[in-house]
Structure to design on (673 residues):
């Protein structure tokens, strides 16, 4: 092997002259072919490369030259080799030769920067589609730069980038159209951000002082702004930079280029997240001014600003109610928008609906991540907000998207206020119960799910939770009467069976207090072939939870179910009547009815059925009779044996139940094809 390599490599390297000729003639196709030859040779003979010799050094130099090629398609061919080499170099057995390879990887930084540079033909940085074609190469080169850090260390990479950006900046000062090299250097700094320790105090301070200088060029400003957001933890560790860099970011929110504005909103959010305590102590008023001036931005940018501001407000004193005051200052302008919109003469105009939708999105964002210690004050604010959310709901009952947004506000509000939401749960669930029969929005179901999680086990709310279960179960079923209805309303399917699953988990006594669960189970069987991802997932989780709870009822007597025997008998009756249908549906789903990607959802149901005992094995035998016969490696008989092995044998097998089911599915599906 070694002797063959020593013959092949020198002969292949004789093509270096051909590569140089093709490079001089701008023959990219010839260069691509030769670069692929050298790269594949390096990957195939990596062991040869790792033992330094004149030939291995020549191969490395050739691969460096290929990486320097101005055509990104040619340069990127070498990237897989550099990845494999970086992994090999870090192996302990190569410690002695590692310094030689560190020199090689040190030379990689400049050509990688070249790959990351946008072509000179790109002059206007105003449309993401314009630069989209080049991004793939940037991402690939950035990965190799991170690999380079793994070999030579972050300090050397940062030092090399600092030298490069100084040279590129000098060129840019002479010709403002030559911004591409500076931007590529900035992108390199951003690419290695996660490798930089917060304590770094030599190179990054120079870069952070440099960033505001690029403000006049939109491309440079865009990447520089993203750097600020990416290094938020480092900035927090160097607080003298917080104010000047935040000023630079905020100025970007007024830029004429949409991409720059988006980057500024992103950076604002991340600086707030990373430096929240410092900002809460020193800069809270200017941050609120930014928020109040952000009304003209796009909704995603406004959400970034609200998320960042909320993270800072969360650091304000809860004891002195500064937290409540800050949160109120965020919510109040949005509540006023809702109030005005609900009273507008053109209430259902597109413009008015957009205002309502945006205000609701921002309210939900404000409630999304709040400190648990502030739950009581969140509830106080929700009490004041309750009437306007109710009014918004009443005015837009037919609009599914606005209803979803109102419910999202409630969802995050309930989670943020915890048990302090108690005074509002009765009127909220009562209202939703009254509305759902006529306006069966799936978002109403999800609010019930959130309430189950928070209040399902609380004794004071059992009557209310039972009433909600009856109302939403009955009217949910009325919407899901056929397989077509399941396919047409996947959002309702997902939230409906998520609700059923949560009731089984948190409130089994409510579920088994009447025969409503019998009808729910029959309804679920109607849709067992639903293909929509989330709908299928939730339906199968409901089935699995229901099957498993039978064992739990028998093995773990629960004080939560006063009439345990009634529940056990009801569960047995449902499984006795419908266990075969459930097994048929799941096996057919695995075999051919469901998309292959949905098979993992069926696994939990099959495992639950296997462990439920009784006639389960008979159900599988009967279900498999409806499936075409298969041959080795997985026949029906082998599938059954694997599923129903004794526990001891099951513990010793190397394959999981999921792998066995997938193997059988592959066998059946290939037979059917």
């Amino acid at each position: 092997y070694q002797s063959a390599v020593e013959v092949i490599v020198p002969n292949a390297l004789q093509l270096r002259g051909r590569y140089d000729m093709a490079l001089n003639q701008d023959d990219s196709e010839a260069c691509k072919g030769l670069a692929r030859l050298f790269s594949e040779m390096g990957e195939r003979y990596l062991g040869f490369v790792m033992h330094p010799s004149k030939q291995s050094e020549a191969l490395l130099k050739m691969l460096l030259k290929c990486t320097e090629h101005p055509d990104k398609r040619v340069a990127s061919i070498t990237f897989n080799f550099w990845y494999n080499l970086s992994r090999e170099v870090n192996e302990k057995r190569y410690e002695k030769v590692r310094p030689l390879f560190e020199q090689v990887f040190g030379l990689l930084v400049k050509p990688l920067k070249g790959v990351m540079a946008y072509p000179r033909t790109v002059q206007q940085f105003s449309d993401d589609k314009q630069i989209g074609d080049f991004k793939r190469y940037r991402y690939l080169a950035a990965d190799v730069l991170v690999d380079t850090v793994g070999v030579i260390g972050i300090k050397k990479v940062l030092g090399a980038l600092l030298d490069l950006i100084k040279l590129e900046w000098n060129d840019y000062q002479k010709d403002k159209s030559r911004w591409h090299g500076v931007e590529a250097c900035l992108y390199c700094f951003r690419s290695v951000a996660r490798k930089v320790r917060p304590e770094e105090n030599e190179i990054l301070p120079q870069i952070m002082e440099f960033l505001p200088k690029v403000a006049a060029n939109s491309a440079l400003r865009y990447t520089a702004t993203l750097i600020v957001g990416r290094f938020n933890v480092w900035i927090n560790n160097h607080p003298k930079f917080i104010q000047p860099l935040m000023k630079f970011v905020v100025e970007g929110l007024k830029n004429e280029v949409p991409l720059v504005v988006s980057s500024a909103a992103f950076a604002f959010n991340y600086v707030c997240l990373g430096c929240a305590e410092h900002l809460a102590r020193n800069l809270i008023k200017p941050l609120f001014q930014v928020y109040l001036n952000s009304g003209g931005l796009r909704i995603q940018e406004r959400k970034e600003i609200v998320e960042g501001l909320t993270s800072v407000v969360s650091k304000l004193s809860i004891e002195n109610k500064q937290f409540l005051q800050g949160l109120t200052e965020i919510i109040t302008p949005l509540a006023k928008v809702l109030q005005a919109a609900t009273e507008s003469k053109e209430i259902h105009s597109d413009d008015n609906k957009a205002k309502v939708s945006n205000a609701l999105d921002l309210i939900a964002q404000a409630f999304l991540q709040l400190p648990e210690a502030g739950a009581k004050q969140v509830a106080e604010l929700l009490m004041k907000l309750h009437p306007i959310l109710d009014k918004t709901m009443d005015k837009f009952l037919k609009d599914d998207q606005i209803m979803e947004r109102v419910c999202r506000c409630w969802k995050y509000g309930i989670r943020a206020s915890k048990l302090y939401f108690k005074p509002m749960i009765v009127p909220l669930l009562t209202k939703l119960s009254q509305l759902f029969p006529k306006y069966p929005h799936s978002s109403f179901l999800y609010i019930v799910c959130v309430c189950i999680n928070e209040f399902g086990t609380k004794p004071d709310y059992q009557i209310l939770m039972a009433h909600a279960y009856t109302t939403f179960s009955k009217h949910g079923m009325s919407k899901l009467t056929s397989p077509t209805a399941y396919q047409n309303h996947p959002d309702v399917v997902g939230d409906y069976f998520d609700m059923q699953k949560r009731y089984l988990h948190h409130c089994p006594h409510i579920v088994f207090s009447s025969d409503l669960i019998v009808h729910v189970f029959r309804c679920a069987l109607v849709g067992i072939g639903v293909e929509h991802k989330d709908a299928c997932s939730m339906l199968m989780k409901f089935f699995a939870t229901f099957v498993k709870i039978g064992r739990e009822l028998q093995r773990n007597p629960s004080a939560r179910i006063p009439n345990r025997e009634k529940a056990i008998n009801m569960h047995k009756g449902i499984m006795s009547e419908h266990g075969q249908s459930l097994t048929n549906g799941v096996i057919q789903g695995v075999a051919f009815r469901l998309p292959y990607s949905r098979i993992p959802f069926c696994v939990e149901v099959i495992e639950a059925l296997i462990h439920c005992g009784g006639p389960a094995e008979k159900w599988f035998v009967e279900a498999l009779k409806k499936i075409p016969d298969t041959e080795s490696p997985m026949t029906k008989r082998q599938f059954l044996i694997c599923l129903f092995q004794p526990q001891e044998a099951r513990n010793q097998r190397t394959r999981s139940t999921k792998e066995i089911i997938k193997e059988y599915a592959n066998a059946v599906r290939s037979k059917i094809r």
Residues 564-593 form the longest helix (30 residues). The chain has a mean pLDDT of 92.
